[in-house]
Amino acid sequence: MNAEKIFRLEQVRKVYGRREVLAVEELDIFRGEILGLVGPSGAGKSTLLRLLNFLEPPTSGRIYFQGNGYDGRVPLPVRRRITTVFQRPLLLEGTVAYNVAYGLRLRGRPDCREKVAGMLERIGLSALAGEPAHTLSGGEAQRVALARALILEPEVLLLDEPTANLDPYHVALLEEIVCRQNREHGTTIVWVTHNVFQARRVAHRVGLLLNGQLVEVAETRSFFERPRDPRTAAFVRGEMVY
């Protein structure tokens, strides 16, 4: 694994009203790794992704991206190097191809038909290029959302439960696409999942969030077989720790 840090979080906290939803004392994310984040609902996983994508600032603390520290406004060129795929993606009115091309058009690349065709072929949706997006199944829609993100060639891909509502076939398909992207292009991936088996399959390292606290981060095998924190050990065993 590359030892270069693409993200570093120091004393990062996020508070909504009087409720602290995230408190990360320290976290490094390395270039080219797949970092899996696990934990129960409400643990702060999605909030952490929003901070990493600079969709909102931390209440306190500092987030470093490629060595530059941010605690407020982040330049658009920086934010465009990071893309998120959500659990329930919102597709636009129009065709599948129109949706996949959307981000490229926003970046001033209107003539991108060849690139879109190549991406649709890569994820197995070429036959649906001209179909209205609202007619797609859940698995197809999720692949379109993933294609829309990958075509932008992001340095960082953030995944928020992208397979939670999919059948096993589409889960395996999306995992294969994402892992191939990581292997072939060196894309750094942060993957939020409730599924510990998925985390074990895809991640190089895994972190556990509980009640907004980052309990433990370790290489995947160590995380599951030799956890340091008793809360991690209990979570891995499937016990209620929240």
Give a brief outline of the structure.
By secondary structure, the chain is of the alpha/beta class. The chain has helices at residues 45-52, 76-79, 96-106, 113-122, 138-150, 168-185, 196-202, 220-225, 230-236; strands spanning 5-16, 19-30, 34-38, 60-65, 68-70, 82-85, 156-160, 188-192, 205-210, 213-219. The protein is built from nine helices and ten strands.
Give a written overview of the molecule.
By secondary structure, this protein is of the alpha/beta class. The chain has a domain at 5-90 and 155-236: Rossmann fold. Helices cover 35% and strands 27% of the residues. It is built from 9 helices and 10 strands. The chain has helices at 45-52, 76-79, 96-106, 113-122, 138-150, 168-185, 196-202, 220-225, 230-236; strands at 5-16, 19-30, 34-38, 60-65, 68-70, 82-85, 156-160, 188-192, 205-210, 213-219. The strands form 2 sheets. The chain has a 6-stranded mixed beta sheet, with helices on both faces. A hairpin with a 2-residue loop joins strand 4 and strand 5. It is globular, with a radius of gyration of 18 Å.
